[in-house]
Description:
Number of strands: 0
Helix content: over 70%
Order of helices and strands: HHHH
Strand content: under 5%
Largest sheet: none
Radius of gyration: 19 Å
Structural class: mainly alpha
Amino acid sequence: MIKSQSKKNNFPLYLMIYTLLLAALGYLVSKGLPDGMITPAIIWIYLFFFLVTLAIHELLKWIARKGINSFVNYFMLLTVGKLLFFLTIVLLYALLNRKDAIPFIIAFFTLYLFFTGFEIVMSLRKKENIRKANPPTPGQNG
Length: 142
């Protein structure tokens, strides 16, 4: 039986801190790059990934309440949908802003990797916390 978690959901706070740290690091890196290598839309890309990551996390939390089978199906569907959505945004931006397409795509892809890494680390941490709070009973695989 799963014990109820009394811990508060700190994901939004961790995500905000992570986003601000990434933005500060990005700002420092941008100072060493030639003009035109940083897209003027960079602040919007940070905001976009913050909001999408938060929304997907909340949606997956809600879906997880339905059970593991529903969760896996929805997770896969959501992942494919997210990738198609991101590809659409990148293509539309590149078509509408050809001059800024390369810096935008590089920034978008880089932040995609960083935010995906963050999601994975946070998911693994949550899984480990749940496993520690609910040790397997004798005769149960865990």
